[in-house]
Amino acid sequence: MHELSIATAIIERAGELARADGAEAVSAVTVRVGELAGVVPDALDFAFEVARDGTALAGARLVVERIPAQAWCGPCAEEFAVGTPPFFWCPRCDHPSTDLRSGRELEITGIEPSPAPA
């Protein structure tokens, strides 16, 4: 399950970013996961819950933004959904596309620091 190594990397990087901003703990991390990134969002969520224990993200939740795979057809200027398994033929003009516009993302897009204790 490679989602565990991905979750660990997210936790490490989010912790680094939080510390750089002066936060001691994180309450939420938002990640974008593309449809073709090879990551199962539910497995990533489970792995995150397991890996966060004992870290600055111990109470944090993972927010996953799923990004659909979209390709661009040059001949007819059409953007279309690729789907899974991916199918790169334009549904409008029946030409193949080599221009994948989205769907491979795997990135942290936001970190919500925990409120400081009173």
TrEMBL record:
InterPro entries: Hydgase_Ni_incorp_HypA/HybF_CS (IPR020538), HypA/HybF (IPR000688). Keywords: Metal-binding, Nickel, Zinc. Pfam families: HypA (PF01155). Zn(2+) binds at residues 73, 76, 90, 93. Coiled coil: none annotated. Involved in the maturation of [NiFe] hydrogenases. Required for nickel insertion into the metal center of the hydrogenase. Belongs to the HypA/HybF family. This is Hydrogenase maturation factor HypA. It comes from Streptomyces caeruleatus. The lineage of its organism: Bacteria, Bacillati, Actinomycetota, Actinomycetes, Kitasatosporales.
